[in-house]
Amino acid sequence: MIDILAQMAPSTWADAFADYQAKRAVFDGDQDTDAETDRLCDITFAAQDYLLTEVRTPDVAAFATKIDLMKGRDLGPDEWFDALLADVRHLAGRPQADPHMDWLAERDTVWSEYNSYSNDDDERDGRLSSAGRALESKILEVSATTRDGILAKALLIVGVAANDGTDEAAVKVFAEAKAMGLVEWEA
């Protein structure tokens, strides 16, 4: 749900917070059926989750507001640690690490494991295949913030094109990337 909201949701803290407050006001004023209340609750929490995990705070006051909202959700630190750390790094002016290369390495591991067996275990194969494709989607759909992130996306695209063998340039580029140790899987 957060991915859908990210495409149409406001990108600044002020706009995202105002959007959440407006949705919360509608939810708080709801006196309709249980189904409508559930629907409004889902919309409100989706807007709040987006605000809390996807939008960086511009200052310490907004950061404190974010923590208060997180406490109100009664969730533990594991659920919010990455979002809080991203805000602290943002407020400190330090660039955030781009996770795309880590996701690419994890994807390589998953597909290597998938290819290392004789494919006689449908449940394992399905689980690994789903995990590999989910990582590929994440790499391509999440915006990169560094050159390494863009490189990870490009390596994935070239690797997939090289794997099907129809693009000679991709096969060559992939071989070079493999020789340099940038990827581990076989095309």
TrEMBL record:
<protein>
    <submittedName>
        <fullName>Uncharacterized protein</fullName>
    </submittedName>
</protein>
